[in-house]
Amino acid sequence: MRSWRRRDQATLASRHGFVRQGIRCQVPIVPVATVGGHAVFMLSEGRWLAGLGERAFGFKSRLRGATLPIIAGFPFPLALDILPAHVPLPAKIRTEVLDPIHLDPDPERADDLAYVTSIYHQVESVLQAGMDRLAGRRRFPIFF
């Protein structure tokens, strides 16, 4: 989950494995841009709160990752999203399948960090451009 203000931001978390796998399998990468899935106002990802709980109690939650989202919604104006206890907002999800990104057919390129990183950045930029285009089609900035 991402905060409301970062809802239209492509986040691949510096994971390059999909590029390496595409090279090894000799298949193109087909980015799919999607916007509009945020059906709740998440004010904060709550990383600091999750870290505080981990430090205070000495355990890491198995149910949640490294976040403890703080949300605003109905019926509670402000709540921790530990369990889904909110009524989601109506949301229109827009998706666009983007042009494939063809990779070098040489399987040895999977070990070339410079090449893998360049493809990763290309995928990230194409994906962000697609998300920006879809976000620009919203008629009402919150729901649709």
From the helix content, strand content and strand pairing, which structural class follows?
alpha+beta
Q: Average pLDDT value?
A: 81
Question: Quick one: biggest sheet?
Answer: 3 strands, antiparallel
The amount of beta strand, in percent, is 5-15%
Helix content: 25-40%
Strand order in the largest sheet: 2-3-4
Number of helical runs? 3
Instruction: Tell me the overall shape.
Output: flat
Q: What is the number of E strands?
A: 5
Compute the separation of the termini in Å: 19 Å
Q: Radius of gyration, rounded?
A: 19 Å
One letter per element, helices H and strands E, the order comes to HEEHEEEH
Regions with pLDDT < 50 over 5+ consecutive residues?
Answer: none
How would you describe this structure to a colleague?
With 144 residues, the chain is α+β, with helices and mostly antiparallel strands. Helix content is 30%, strand content 12%. It contains 3 helices and 5 strands; from the N terminus they run αββαβββα. The protein has helices at residues 17-25, 47-57, 113-135, and strands at residues 32-35, 41-44, 70-72, 79-80, 94-97. The strands form 2 sheets. It has a 3-stranded antiparallel beta sheet, with no helix packed on it. Strands 1-5 form a two-stranded antiparallel ribbon. The model has no long low-confidence stretch (mean pLDDT 81).
